[in-house]
Amino acid sequence: MEGLSAAKRDTISSIVDLHNVDAICLQEAHVDADVTNRFSILGFDLVSFHLHTKHGRAVYVSQNLAGVAYQFSTTHCDVIKVSAVSIANVYRPPSEPWSEHNLLPSLPHPAVYVGDFNSQMQRVRAMICCWSMIQSKRYLRVCSSAM
Q1: Are residues 52 and 95 both part of a single domain?
Q2: Are 86 and 61 in contact (CB under 8 A)?
Q3: CA distances from 108 to 68, 70, 87, 125 (A)
Q4: Could you read off the pLDDT of 101-145 as tens digits, one per residue?
Q5: Does 65 share its domain with 127?
Q6: Among candidates 26, 105, 17, 27, which has minimal Cα distance to 63?
Q7: What domain range is 130 assigned to?
Q8: Based on the domain organization, do 112 and 124 belong to the same domain?
């Protein structure tokens, strides 16, 4: 995303109108001050944001949706809930490696993880296997055979 200028917010508004989008998850928002007019996107409510000069995140949902709630934030993600669905907006800077101390949270089904993971696919597969092993022994066999 690299910034939330008025022109970029207008472009986002046009795209979401064209495709009937209900949720917007942005990474690298590059906003480090709580300036309300820098966050507005026509027809959407800002549900969650993380201010940072480079690594900012923002999650928006359509003003027409009911049952929307902020859940929590971690080092690399913000989680909201829309009705029964959890949505995790993820941004991990390329300079920060994944480790057992900053794994993504385990969310109940149904859940969606979206964002910029800044990971090579081999590393992502290994982290998914590691996460899966922690969650359930049955995934160990699936991940081991896939690698």
Answers
A1: yes
A2: no
A3: 16, 15, 10, 20
A4: 777 888 999 999 988 887 655 555 555 555 444 444 444 434 433
A5: no
A6: 17
A7: 120-147
A8: no
pTM for this one?
0.72
Report the C-alpha gap between 103 and 74 in whole angstroms: 9
Quickly list DSSP for 54-107: TT-EEEEEETT--SEEEEEE-SSEEEEEETTEEEEEEE--TTS---TTSPPPP-
Q: Is 1 contained in some domain?
A: no
Residues 74 and 137 in one domain: no
Nearest in space to 77 (alpha carbons), one of 97, 47, 104: 104
How do residues 30-58 score in pLDDT, each as one tens digit?
655 565 556 678 888 888 877 655 667 88
Nearest C-alpha neighbor of 113 from the set 103, 98, 101: 103
As a whole number of angstroms, the distance between CA 124 and CA 79 comes to 20
* Tally of structural domains, the chain: 2
Find the CATH number of the domain harbouring 52. Answer: 3.60.10.10
